[in-house]
Design goal:
The protein is α/β, with parallel strands linked by helices. The chain has a single domain, classed as Beta-carbonic Anhydrase, Chain A (3-Layer(aba) Sandwich), CATH 3.40.1050.10. Helix content is 45%, strand content 24%. It is built from four helices and five strands. Helix 1 links the parallel strand 1 and strand 2. Helix 2 crosses helix 4. Bound molecules: zinc ion. Zinc ion (ZN) binds next to loops.
């Protein structure tokens, strides 16, 4: 059984975004642990990736929700993303598409959050 309160983050593999994300989520939602699913440019991978890439992200989110009881899915896009080098506007478009996809999974969670992590590594909630 899980001990403690878990949240789930779908984030870039970029080392610059991990700590700001974990800190922000712990402060905002009082989590003990954040399960982190990382990809290079996850917003592009989830919104435009091959079916098996989408399935891979989905299956890891399901483990976090079903085995750890996470009630919050946090999905981020970020500034200067090497895995998805597009404009902020394009990132936000992809991010919104990702949120639609995550909602379509019908997970038993309370929160699905989309965020932008900016050039000073600050988390900004988009949706
Ligand atoms: Zn990135």
């Amino acid at each position: 059984m899980q001990h403690g309160k878990f949240g789930t983050a779908i984030n870039c593999m970029d080392g610059r975004v991990q700590e700001p994300t974990i800190k922000w989520l712990k402060q905002k939602y009082d989590f003990d642990y954040i399960d982190t699913i990382t990809e290079p440019g996850p917003d592009k991978m989830l919104s435009q990736g091959r079916p098996e890439q989408v399935e891979s992200i989905k299956s890891r989110v399901f483990i976090s929700v079903n085995k750890h009881g996470s009630d919050t899915i946090f999905m981020a896009a970020h500034y200067d993303c090497a895995g998805d080098p597009v404009s902020k506007e394009e990132h936000l478009k992809q991010l919104r598409e990702c949120l639609k996809i995550i909602r379509s999974w019908n997970l038993p969670v309370k929160n699905i959050i989309g965020a932008w992590i900016d050039e000073s590594w600050t988390v900004e909630v988009i949706e």
